[in-house]
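so im writing up the methods section and need the Lipoprotein record in one place, dumping it here so i stop losing it
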Amino acid sequence: MRAVVRVGSVGPVVLLAVLLGGCGGVQGPSPDVGRSAVARGPSGGPSTAAGVDGEIDPQRGFTEGELKAALLPGEAFGRGARVIATDLGLFGRYGGGDWTSCADGDDLRVEMRGFEGDSAQRTVRLGGASEDGPVVTVQFVSLPGGRAERYLEIRRLLNETCPDVTVDTDAAPVQEHHEAREVDALGDETLSESTRRTGGDEYDGDSTYVVHVRVGGVLVVVTSDGDRGTGIALAARAAERVRAGLYGVAAGAIPVP
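--- predicted struct ---
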């Protein structure tokens, strides 16, 4: 079963316009993720998250301090958003699915665990939500020298090789259903993943979405519960922060605060 689906584009047009306009919270799930990843900024013109390949030194890396300084500020998440935490050095420690029961993915899983890179992340509770409402995490990871490309390739292959796996939990085994979609017009390379759990626990049927955007040797990793569109909208804005704020390449139509 091939779990990687290539889509020409993905587009939370309304969501990104809301984020850029600074009014209102991030809206609910986008019903159609098969549209363009190009959104419209405050002026109404198209705004894209351009990459930097061919414009920067591919060997250049960034420190945790530099990555932290470039993170999206709280106001970029919409009115009423609240920053829960800002952390350093958590890349690879949590999340990302559990493929341990898939023997065909063993080599890929071992290789993925070997990746190390400086990282910084910000976790935000979106505005207009209750205390148990949606939480989004945006992480920047420095993986220069071609390692970012390889990391995305491993994740792509894992989703393709092991689309359905069994995960042991304290309550009972559950099924994880994985899918990955390549997204055009967003950074140098983008992979949007979804993980849905089914089984007998309290999270039965819930989905988690992770968007990985490569901008040169930096990965932008956006994790959101229940809404792929929100993750893609934030990833587009974060990719522009990396392009302009870290690499110093002229920003596109999305301004960097």
